[in-house]
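Researcher: Please translate sequence to structure tokens.
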Amino acid sequence: MRLPFLPTLFFICCLFGCSEVSEVKTLRLAHGLDITHPVHQGMVRLSELVEEKSNGKLEVRIYPSGQLGSERECLELLQIGSLDITKVSAAVMENFVPTYEVLGLPYIFKSREHSYEVLDGPIGDELLEQGSKYRLRGLCFYDAGSRSFYTKKPIKNPEDLTGLKIRVQRSKTAVEMVNHMGAAPTPIPWGELYTALQQGVVDGAENNPPSFYFSRHYEVCKYYSINEHTTVPDVLLIGTNTWKRLSEQERKWISEAAKESARFQRVVWNKSEKECLEKMIEEGVEVSYPDKAPFSTKIEAMFDKYSGREDFVELIERIRNSDRKPSLSLKL
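Model: Translation complete:
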């Protein structure tokens, strides 16, 4: 006789169940990297930390491999509030926040450790904050290593680049750098690069070891010349529209998780970089370490254009003279 009560009980359970589910706030994070990439692993750690810190009240759902668009498209989605978080290269950010241009200058950093000192200190904090004016609030920097040339022929000095078409990111600084080194810069979306290399649209590209290996570009380009011309970090960003909707507690969870995930990601990156170099050699790639001095000399004129911009001159000098100890070391 009590059977008619079951549907009602079921409805109530569903109602309370839905209410519980609705209390979980979900933030969508989109980026263009493959799930095997060490930077993706940093974002996975971010998601785990947010869930831990919030006891499941806040979650970050990740959409990798360009599922929601290119880097530029994801930034634009952030600006209009249609996406919550994204990861892009600082080179792409300079098209939205001009000051980021400084991070793409060739040989601006003396070493990887020097880049950590800058990015973990006041300069890094200032850069992350400056994006807020463009509705792109920075959360942290992820290590993206140093970028070097990979091509279909050996590159032992800048002269070997003469006449080659080299893929670059959509960054005026990257375009200018490759021009100064004697090659023809060709901006091509990352997702289209493998085919462009295969079909001869470009003769090579420049990137870090994990990106070169995980993209399988080594199947086309058998020469990797580690001249480390730039050390451009990746940037994790949250849209200001999303940031304003978060409570103070939720902001704290996100901020803390971002910094901790950056620490974790550096360790993962360091390990992955070594492994990828070993694996690409096993795949028949010739890895060389040319003298950096001739490459550095070629791009010196790039700094001259900033002579009339006191703010940039000051920023460049602050970076070059930075001697602050890093707060995010390679040790967990």
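Researcher: Any highlights?
Model: The mean pLDDT is 91.
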